[in-house]
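Trying the structure run again after the queue cleared.
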Amino acid sequence: MRCPTIIGIKFDEKSIKGIARIKQLNELSSVLVKIVALGTFANIFLGNKVPEITFNIYNSDWHLFHEALNTVPSLVKISIKNEALAQIFDHMDDPKQRQFWEAIVDGCSIE
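Done. Tokens:
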């Protein structure tokens, strides 16, 4: 997909807040993935001796762990898309801002 170049766009307060929320979602998703991973590995290794570690590794639900890590980006994408859709409706009278938010819905990122 090719993201559009929008010349002369001026963001209003609603768009600026929407962009800030999307950036915050991206930051929170990164933190959440780290917390899930650290929590799992701490549960396995911290305070345990070799037999307990081996038992914990063997009994860990690695499929569920993998699903949890993969779910975070999907949830973030849905949340970003919902934010962008709301912004489209808020900017029906501003073609450049509407085009920007439509591009976000289509998968373009905020840089």
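The chain has one domain: 16-105. Worth checking whether this holds up in the mutant runs.
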